[in-house]
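Query structure, 418 tokens:
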């Protein structure tokens, strides 16, 4: 297996031995690894990422600086020279470059920085020494400077100084941490405990992270869940969106139904013409719409008689796209009706469990809606399994801005996406 040292020997730093940057050691190493997987020490890295990086070089530039391009599925792949000692200059360029090669072979390493690229707060760094020794997750760090700049609205690093916690002492109280958490949540870190895991108390005034966790205020019970109209509205969310109601949405519709004298017609029309509903069903054929609704509600395709019936009603205009989901739900019988009953109970518990502002904020966009939909789609008429699913509701809520699949798979469930 060829190492960085081997490539420096062959091509020289920046490809000086062959007179072209397109033969830089890391570039050639990447080319060889993609062409012959396992032939270089880069084989310790993700092969899919390496292939994308190679494609970027092929299509844009052979310069190894391209490997820090923003279009890559990782942050960077580069040679780290931070531990390479200074090399004495020489009038003889060949002598100087030869000495540079020797220094890099002795002390340089390949650095692969990866993780959630869209999340500026967490990255993992792997090192591969010039001799091929691999150190995985050598650094798991948080970009505190990025957090500082987002929180304070700084234009650049120079404006605010390099280290907010040592130089500026911005984070000094639980109240300030709570404000920062609201921003952190929007960038994929989901709980105060998670923040503590990544930032640690060293990043705050002593005890602040623990204090913020302990002081997280509980919101009042969602009183609208006790309203006589609540089940109809929960069924509306289930029929049209395949997910539990959010507290603000439920409160809005309870109030609207009271003002309308309990008439659900306006609710059905508005649910059925919303952007979320159209995104789920709007571009499908009548048969696809019916089957999708059946999958949403009953975890199965429509039986032929039911499919033909509902498709005919859609195609003849007897029912509209905005009304069919609610009609199908209210026509459920036997085991289908049992599934609806279980999903309504689960939805009610989910909404009730959004009992802190942090959790309410987590359930606020298309990502969280999709994750909640994935969870709710697993409920069937198997009450024992449903009880197990209900038991991980809080874990699901805490990951609404990320991925709930690992939680579900870890409990033995196979996530279903709608």
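Result returned for the query:
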């Amino acid at each position: 297996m060829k190492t960085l040292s081997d490539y420096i020997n062959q091509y020289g730093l920046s490809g000086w031995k062959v007179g072209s940057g397109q033969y830089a050691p890391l570039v050639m190493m990447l080319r060889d690894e993609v062409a012959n997987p396992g032939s270089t020490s880069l084989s310790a890295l993700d092969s899919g990422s390496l292939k994308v990086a190679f494609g970027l070089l092929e299509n844009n530039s052979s310069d190894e600086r391209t490997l820090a391009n923003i279009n890559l599925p990782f942050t960077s792949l580069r040679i780290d020279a931070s531990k390479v000692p200074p090399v004495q200059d020489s009038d003889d360029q060949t002598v100087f470059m030869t000495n540079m090669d020797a220094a890099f072979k002795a002390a340089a390493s390949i650095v692969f920085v990866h993780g959630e690229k869209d999340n500026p707060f967490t990255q993992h760094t792997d090192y591969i020494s010039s001799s091929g020794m691999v150190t995985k997750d050598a650094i798991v760090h948080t970009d505190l400077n990025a957090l500082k700049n987002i929180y304070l609205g700084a234009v650049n690093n120079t404006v605010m100084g390099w280290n907010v916690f040592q130089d500026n002492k911005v984070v000094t109280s639980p109240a300030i941490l709570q404000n920062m958490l609201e921003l952190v949540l929007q960038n994929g870190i989901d709980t105060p405990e998670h923040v503590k895991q990544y930032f640690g108390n060293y990043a705050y005034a002593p005890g602040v992270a623990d204090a913020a966790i302990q002081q997280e205020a509980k919101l009042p019970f969602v009183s609208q869940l006790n309203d006589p109209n609540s089940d109809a509205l929960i069924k509306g969310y289930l029929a049209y969106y395949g997910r539990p109601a959010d507290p603000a949405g439920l409160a809005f519709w309870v109030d609207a139904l009271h003002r309308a004298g309990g008439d659900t017609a306006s609710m059905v029309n508005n649910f059925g013409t919303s952007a979320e509903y159209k995104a789920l069903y709007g571009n499908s054929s009548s048969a696809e719409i019916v089957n999708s609704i059946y999958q949403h509600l009953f975890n199965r395709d429509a039986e032929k008689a039911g499919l033909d019936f509902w498709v005919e009603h859609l195609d003849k205009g007897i029912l509209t796209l905005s009304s069919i989901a609610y009609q199908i739900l209210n026509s459920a019988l036997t085991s289908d009706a049992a599934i609806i009953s279980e999903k309504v109970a689960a939805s009610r518990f989910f909404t009730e469990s959004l009992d802190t502002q942090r959790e309410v904020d987590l359930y606020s966009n298309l990502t969280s809606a999709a994750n909640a939909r994935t969870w709710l789609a697993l409920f069937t008429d198997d009450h024992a399994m449903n009880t197990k699913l209900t038991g991980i509701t809080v874990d699901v809520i805490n990951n609404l801005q990320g991925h709930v699949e690992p939680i579900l798979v870890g409990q033995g469930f196979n996530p279903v996406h709608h």
